[in-house]
Structure formats: structure tokens, C-alpha cells
Write a structure and sequence with these properties.
378 residues; alpha/beta; Rossmann fold; Arc Repressor Mutant, subunit A; 3 domains; 15 helices; 12 strands; globular
């Protein structure tokens, strides 16, 4: 339990996102050692003050809060964490799970779509989800109004479903879906990345969407406008090498234009559950790769080795840090491009990036990309 308290403290530390969390554990081998190293790393990255690290009491209270919500906490570096989700570079460091965590390792397909879906769209989603569940698949969705709710209801009639929520595990959203969330948890699972008690905010939903995609072998889009969260989920799915399916709709209905555009780009057309079942892979593939936007970015450091300790000479560290910052901007840059332009060894560059991450100066993004953040003024 003590080690999990340290993991939770590290996961909730200011500036330690999912990618940084894994990099710290690879380098320091334990959460306790990483916590001890954080102030020094932040100083080396150019920050005058240490990042805010939750105390043991804070972590213990979160465990107690999760327990009152009948939720377990799963850590990405511990047994029991969903294997498919763990393949994402930015898989959540910690998940709150109500229900049966083992369901998260079952063969699954996601279904997402418009919140203001048409009656026909909801009927189709419900029927398709029921057929997919009857075929033995777990149906994953986001508990939202419209297509999400229809998918959950259809799957519950024939099998199991998983709901990924944007806020805390104990904050049903929308509120009228509290009973639906409870029914899902009785046989399937409800998953949250945010700490218990967190009210959902707009910025939480894209992060929720990547969990929906990450738990699934494929994502089915039913009725999505050209600018919608469902298309974010589809993009995240294809970047993770998962299949993307889209249900075609009338070109006269704005709610169908996003799904139709996905088909135009190379997503698989799906009108029935059989269209999904006939080619859903057993394991994630290398991406659909049949359209200009369906392309996975790969870099030289796709699975980088743990970075070495920073140079002993602080002057060298400062020079390397300044060199890397000068090459970065708010638009993400590939890590392998930084290696070429900075003339640093891969090990030195990764060590500098880790310092800058902890200092809040840069953000590591999936695909071995890194972006400069606004100067925090430290």
C-alpha cells in the first residue's frame, strides 16, 4: 500500500502527466525515488521553486474517497491495468474503476456519436451495440446523451458494456445517467482518469475520448458533425493503430457529415454489426493507413531507453537546456528532429527533456513529439 501511495502522489504531482510519469519510473525505478528527485530535476530544468507534490495524507484521502465510491485504483505500471490501454504512450497513470476491472481486458469495440442524435441514429446504435454484445464483444462508450447512451443500453440487453467518464468516478454526468452508470457497473465497468469528486470540464472530454479509443480494438462512429468529440476519438483510435468504422448518413443532415467524411478518408463503412465483426482484429494493428489523415507518426525514439543521469557539470546542463529550448516552439517538434538539430546524444537529450518536463517548460506528446509551454515565470 505504501508503494501505491507514492505512485498516486507522483501521478498527482504538478506537471507530471502520463508520459512524464512513465519516464520518471523508468529512470528512477520507484515512485518514492522519483518523488525525491523531483525538486532537483525542476531546478535543473530552470525552475526556481519545486513542483507541488501531494502529501501522503492527500493520497490516503483519495484512496478513501475511491473506496466510498466502490472504486479500485489501477496504476499503469502495476498488474491489473488494462493491457490494451497500456499500449498508449499517454495511457492514464492511474484509473478509478467501478465494477469488474477484468472486463477492461476483454475484446472490445467502442461506439461514439452525436449527443443530439436523431431517433434513427439512436435506434441503429442501440441495435448494433446489442448485436456486438451478443457476439461476445464488450461495447465501450462515454455515457453521454444520444449515441453513447443508446450504445450502452443496447449492449446491456445482450452482454457487457464499459463507460468512460470525464469527471470523477463518483460524479455521474450527465446527472440523469446516474442510474445507467450504476447498471453498467453491476456487470461491466465504469472508468475515470480524474480524481474522485472532480466535476467534468470541457478539457476533460478529449482525454476521456482517448481512453475510449485505447480500450477498444476499433471505434464505430454513428452521426458525428464535422467538428465533434467523436472525430477526436476516431483520430486517437487510428493514431493508436485501432480500426475506425463509420456509419454513413444523409448528406443533408449535418450530424452525418463527420461520419461520411471519415469514410471518404478511408474509414471502414459499417451499416450492421456484421460489417464490424468480419474484420475486427484480434490485436491492434499498424493503423488503417488508407487515407491522407490515416497515418501513424513514428520517430527514432518510439520506445526510448531510460535517460541517463544529467551531466555532473551544471554549466553543461544549462547549455544543453538552453540549446533545446531555443529549438522548440508552441508547435510540437519530433524528438528525432531535436537530436539532429541539437547535436546532443539521444541520452543527453532525453535527460534534458525530462528536466524541462518536470520544470513545466515543455510538454511531451504522443508520437515522440515535444512542445514548448508558456514560460511559467519561475
Amino acid at each position: 500500500m505504501s508503494a501505491d501511495i507514492d505512485r498516486l502522489r507522483l501521478a498527482r504531482t504538478e506537471g507530471v502527466g502520463p508520459i512524464t510519469y512513465r519516464r520518471l519510473l523508468r529512470r528512477f525505478e520507484s515512485a518514492a525515488a522519483a518523488l525525491d528527485a523531483l525538486p532537483g530535476l525542476a531546478r535543473a530544468g530552470g525552475r526556481a521553486t519545486a513542483p507541488a507534490i501531494p502529501g501522503r495524507d492527500d493520497a490516503e484521502r483519495e484512496f478513501e474517497h475511491a473506496g466510498r465510491a466502490r472504486a479500485a485504483l489501477l496504476f499503469v505500471d502495476r498488474p491489473g491495468y488494462p493491457k490494451l490501454l497500456a499500449l498508449l504512450e499517454d495511457a492514464p497513470s492511474v484509473l478509478s474503476v467501478q465494477g469488474r476491472p477484468e472486463v477492461l481486458d476483454a475484446r472490445a469495440v467502442a461506439m461514439v456519436g452525436s449527443r443530439n442524435a436523431s431517433a434513427n441514429g439512436q435506434r441503429l446504435a442501440e441495435a448494433m451495440a446489442e448485436d456486438l454484445a451478443a457476439a461476445g464483444l464488450v461495447v465501450v462508450s462515454g455515457l453521454a446523451r444520444g449515441i453513447d447512451a443508446a450504445a450502452h443500453e443496447g449492449a446491456l440487453r445482450a452482454g457487457l458494456t464499459v463507460a468512460c467518464v470525464a469527471g470523477g468516478i463518483d460524479v455521474p454526468y450527465p446527472p440523469e445517467h446516474a442510474d445507467l452508470q450504476a447498471r453498467i457497473a453491476r456487470g461491466g465497468a465504469v472508468v475515470a482518469e480524474a480524481p474522485p469528486g472532480t466535476a467534468p470540464q470541457a478539457r476533460h472530454f478529449p482525454r476521456r475520448n482517448r481512453i475510449i479509443a485505447g480500450l477498444s480494438l476499433g471505434v464505430v462512429v454513428v452521426e458525428a458533425a464535422l467538428r465533434s468529440g467523436s472525430l477526436i476519438t476516431a483520430r486517437q483510435a487510428q493514431e493508436a493503430g485501432r480500426e475506425v468504422y463509420a456509419v454513413p448518413g444523409s448528406p443533408l443532415d449535418p450530424r452525418c457529415r463527420g461520419a461520411n467524411d471519415l469514410i471518404r478518408q478511408g474509414a471502414r463503412l459499417a451499416e450492421t454489426a456484421a460489417d464490424v465483426l468480419e474484420d475486427l482484429p484480434e490485436h491492434p494493428g499498424a493503423g488503417i493507413g488508407r487515407g491522407p489523415q490515416f497515418h501513424r507518426r513514428r520517430g527514432l525514439l518510439e520506445n526510448p531507453a531510460p535517460p541517463p543521469a544529467s551531466p555532473a557539470d551544471p554549466t553543461d546542463t544549462g547549455r544543453m537546456r538552453d540549446r533545446v529550448i531555443a529549438l522548440l516552439g508552441p508547435s510540437a517538434t519530433a524528438v528525432d528532429e531535436l537530436i539532429r538539430r541539437s547535436h546532443l546524444t539521444p541520452g543527453d537529450l532525453m535527460a534534458v527533456l525530462l528536466m524541462l518536463e518536470v520544470a513545466g517548460r515543455v510538454e511531451m506528446q504522443p508520437g515522440n513529439m515535444v512542445a514548448l509551454l508558456a514560460d511559467p515565470g519561475h
